[in-house]
Specification:
Layout lengths: L15 H7 L10 H7 L2 E13 L7 E2 L5 E9 L5 E7 L5 E3 L1 E3 L4 E8 L2 H7 L3 E9 L3 E9 L13 H4 L8 E4 L9 E9 L5 E4 L15 E4 L9 E15 L8 E14 L5 E9 L18 E4 L13 E3 L5 E7 L2 E7 L5 E5 L5 E5 L4 E11 L5 E8 L6 E4 L2 H8 L6 E10 L4 E2 L2 E2 L1 E8 L4 E5 L2 H7 L5 E9 L18 E8 L2 E5 L2 H8 L4 E9 L1
Parallel strand pairs: 1-15, 16-23
Antiparallel strand pairs: 1-2, 1-3, 3-7, 4-5, 4-8, 6-7, 8-9, 10-13, 11-12, 11-14, 14-15, 16-19, 17-18, 17-20, 20-22, 21-23, 24-25, 24-26, 27-28, 29-30, 29-31, 32-33, 32-34
């Protein structure tokens, strides 16, 4: 039976370098691929020899232990079924039909050899001719020349040790010694998942933006490429193009080249952790989830690596699904700050700090990390009423007229003092200033209520005998050390002061009352916010 080289070549599982050549990566010496595809059934015809290397330490790579010498010839279709058949003829004048690889839309002949002598004896340098029967373009006979054994030196990964401890939760930079910089040089890096068999990353072909040249020496693999615990094979191809012709098949290059491929194996950080949660629409602006709260779709959630409150370049982000669920996969063990980009017309009501701190161990799945956002459009100013109890010495504040009227009816127990100020019923932005929750607590031991805008105080007091009564309204924030003259840019706003006496507190918007009570044994605690 006739053969392309000195013996019949078998179509074997191709090395990455042969697959590389088969994917139009040598076409940069010819006219643009996009133009050729508009005119031709074929985008590339090639013949190539490649030597495979393996890097198993930080030093130089060594020759692969078996089948290190490769030959490949092929015809790349521009689309499926644009070529009906193809045949290759070697320098020895013998021919062999090419086999269609439908997964790559390519007719090919490929083989591995155990020695350079075996490769050269079977596939010597010279002219390789391919006869192509194209569906629309007719029959064409094209040639690719291999002369001079111009194999490049293999590339060496220069951050080998770092690649043995890849963190799936961060971007990974891979570096290598540059090929050189000649005009006929081309470099390609790819990564295969040995667990799934998929190619998870590869640099662009030379006829596309971002292609690597002989001077390239690094590339950054984006976050989310690797799965913790999976094994990977990184392959670095250096290619010397020694011949290119576009006249036999007009507009289609027939190329010949020599390559060197370096393989490196590594395992991504073991133990895949995850963080999952939800973002709900806080329909009653309470800051507390209830089953009627619906999820919010397409909200961006991110891991704030530097905890600056902003989504910065390189930080991991995901978007919620239609149910408001989000999930971060493939995380290394550690502590993460989780934040959301609050959608327009919403104000975050929980967590009060604006972020969640989540710690995960190796392999741990953290769930239930919830954010609540209330619509900013429905909030209105509502009256706050004050009562005084001569029995408990407490001043009580409420926006509930029914509570006010009921307590006032208890003559001798509560004295109504009327409306004292207004606060917002929910999240709102007025004059460019966003309001914040006002929390209420009750201590049954001392029969006292307490109001605070300080989430930490609200949280700590709950461990000291106080019952949390959730958000009762919204006020505008006060900066540390705020004074009555340092009002926010909210029309009609006024300072809300807090005072403390033994076991009781009082809130007032009247500066005179605030000053007078401090002369009568009360301790002034300053402005806690602004009300309207």
């Amino acid at each position: 039976m006739a053969t392309l080289c000195g013996r019949r070549l078998v179509v074997s599982t191709p090395s990455k370098s042969r697959r590389l050549l088969a994917k139009s990566t040598l076409t940069f010496l010819a006219e643009p691929l996009e133009t050729r595809r508009l005119l031709s059934d074929v985008s590339l015809v090639y013949a190539a020899k490649t030597i495979d290397y393996m890097q198993t330490a930080s030093g130089a790579p060594t020759l692969a232990s078996s089948n290190a010498y490769d030959f490949g010839a092929g015809v790349q279709e521009t689309a499926a079924n644009t070529v009906s058949s193809a045949k290759g003829t070697g320098p020895n004048g013998q021919s062999q039909a090419m086999t269609l690889d439908s997964t790559q839309n390519k007719f090919k002949i490929e083989a591995d050899f155990n020695s350079q002598a075996d490769l050269d004896a079977n596939c010597p340098d010279g002219t390789y001719t391919m006869q192509i029967n194209a569906v629309n373009d007719g029959t064409h006979t094209v040639t690719g020349n291999l002369t001079g054994d111009q194999y490049p030196s293999p590339g060496q990964f220069t951050n080998y040790n770092a690649l043995q401890n890849v963190n799936p939760a961060t971007a990974t930079t891979i570096t290598w010694t540059p090929m050189g910089g000649g005009s006929n040089e081309y470099v390609k890096l790819g990564i295969d998942d040995a667990t799934t068999g998929d190619t998870v990353f590869q640099t662009p072909d030379p006829d596309t933006s971002g292609a690597l040249t002989g001077t390239s020496s690094s590339v950054t693999v984006p976050v989310g490429t690797f799965v913790a615990g999976h094994q990977y094979d990184a392959w670095l191809d250096f290619i010397n193009i020694v011949s290119s012709d576009t006249t036999d098949y007009p507009g289609v290059p027939a190329v010949g080249g020599y390559g060197a491929e370096t393989d490196l194996n590594f395992t991504a950080g073991a133990g895949s952790a995850s963080i999952a949660g939800n973002i709900y629409s806080d329909t009653n602006a309470s800051g507390v989830y209830n089953p009627a709260d619906p999820g919010i779709n397409d909200v961006m959630v991110y891991l704030d690596a530097n905890n600056n409150g902003n989504l910065d370049a390189g930080e991991i982000s995901v978007n919620t699904n239609a149910s408001g669920n989000y999930l971060f996969r493939n995380l290394a063990a550690g502590t993460y700050t989780v934040r959301e980009v609050v959608p327009g017309n919403y104000v975050q009501t929980s967590p009060g700090s604006g972020a969640l701190s989540v710690t995960v161990a190796i392999g741990q799945a953290s769930t239930g990390n919830t954010f609540l956002d209330a619509s900013a459009g429905h909030a209105t100013a509502e009256a706050v009423y004050r009562l005084y109890s001569p029995v408990t010495l407490e001043h009580l504040y409420t926006t509930d007229p029914n509570e006010y009227n009921t307590l006032e009816s208890y003559v001798g127990t509560w004295n109504g003092e009327g409306e004292v100020f207004s606060e917002y019923s929910g999240p709102a932005t007025v004059g460019g200033v966003a309001d914040e929750p006002l929390y209420r607590l009750y201590n049954p031991s001392v029969l006292q209520h307490l109001w605070t805008t300080d989430l930490n105080e609200y949280t700590v007091l709950a461990t000291e005998g106080w019952n949390q009564e959730n958000i009762v309204g919204y006020v505008f924030p006060a900066a540390t050390g705020a004074t009555a003259t340092s009002l926010p840019t909210v029309p009609g706003s006024q300072a809300l002061y807090r005072l403390m006496a033994p076991q009781v507190h009082l809130w007032t918007t009247t500066p005179n009352e605030y000053d007078t009570l401090q002369t009568e044994g009360w301790t002034g605690e300053g402005i806690i916010g602004y009300v309207v």
